[in-house]
Specification:
Blueprint lengths: L2 E6 L19 E2 L2 E2 L2 H9 L4 E6 L4 H8 L8 E6 L7 H6 L1 H4 L4 E5 L2 E5 L2 H10 L3 E7 L7 E5 L5 E6 L8 E2 L3 E4 L3 H5 L12 H10 L3 E5 L4 E5 L3 H18 L6 H7 L5 H8 L7 H7 L11
Parallel strand pairs: 1-4, 1-6, 4-5, 8-13
Antiparallel strand pairs: 2-3, 6-12, 7-14, 8-11, 9-10
Helix pairs in contact: 10-11
């Protein structure tokens, strides 16, 4: 069974002074902590055994917020990253937790929302090969960029190229097989002094064991690593929730709809949150069915 890695480390220097005393994944995106959004993405994929990696100074805060995940019918464990030295380092840190299992890794400041997203995530979870995603962006220089052939085969993936070969960036969500930690251990630091996740992914590409799924225009991918991005994400989520009357990336709702918790457990989760209106929303779910993807 595939396990999840939620990477919530890093120093958040692009957000200073906001993140000088609290990590960015604990900042709010509208009505929920930022970390709820990537956590819910893993849950939507059907992943219920998750390792959260954070800085040692933030560990107590994450444990106070998320506990062990059992309240949502999942399991959350924790590991620390003393110094952020690249995304591939997370796969090495997670090696004891994975214990040979395939994994999905998501960055703690990445937010996904859109039509059929749950089906796309679950399909990636069911594949035996590695899967990454492509998303059309205006500024590919800021991301890992996917180069395609005329027949739409992936030729290369390059980290933050000065001359991008396409406008398709690779979001911070990766599905790997059981060899991910093994491949990560062979990666050498880049010129930036980091263990680049692209170097792990390119090993899958060389072995012809990589699937790339292009996310459609109907899917939103937001990287909330700057003040402007946080403000835009908050406005986006607020607009959707107010218009539809449905919450985005609500772990209690996802857990309830997937049968991870029952209506008694949902009521217990709702009671401490009634004054915020969040609890009232949770209670309203007791009268709803879940025929479609609404998270």
């Amino acid at each position: 069974m595939r396990k999840g890695i939620l990477l919530a480390g890093g120093s958040g220097t692009r957000l200073y002074p906001i993140t000088q005393v609290v990590c960015k994944q604990l900042l709010p995106i509208y009505d929920k902590p930022m970390v709820y959004y990537p956590l819910c993405t893993l849950m939507q994929a059907g992943i219920t055994d998750i390792l959260l990696i954070c800085a040692p100074s933030d560990l107590a805060l994450f444990k106070a917020l998320l506990h062990n995940g059992h309240q949502w019918g999942i399991n959350i464990e924790f590991a620390t990253q003393a110094k952020p030295e690249g995304l591939a380092q997370a796969l090495i840190i997670a090696d004891p937790f994975l214990a040979g299992s395939p994994c999905a890794m998501i960055l703690g400041d990445n937010l996904f929302y859109g039509h059929q997203l749950q089906h796309i995530l679950q399909a990636a979870n069911e594949m035996s090969c590695a899967t990454v995603f492509g998303y059309h962006v205006a500024n590919p220089q800021a991301y890992g960029v996917i180069e395609f052939s005329e027949n739409n085969h992936v030729i290369s993936i390059t980290e933050k190229p000065t001359e991008p070969k396409s406008h398709f960036a690779m979001p911070g969500l990766y599905f790997f097989d059981s060899h991910a930690s093994e491949y990560a251990k062979t990666v050498t630091p880049s010129l930036r002094g980091e263990l680049e996740i692209v170097d792990v992914i390119n090993q899958y590409l060389e072995l012809d064991n990589l699937n790339v799924k292009i996310l459609s225009r109907g899917t939103a991918w937001l990287d909330t690593g700057t003040p402007d991005a946080i403000a835009e994400a908050t406005q986006y989520i607020a607009a959707i929730e107010k218009r539809q009357g449905l919450k985005v990336s609500c772990p209690e709702e996802i857990a309830y709809s997937m049968g991870l918790i029952d209506h008694f457990q949902l009521k217990i989760l709702a009671e401490p949150l009634l004054k915020s209106g969040y609890g009232e929303y949770l209670l309203s779910l007791l009268d709803k069915n879940f025929p479609d993807e609404i998270y």
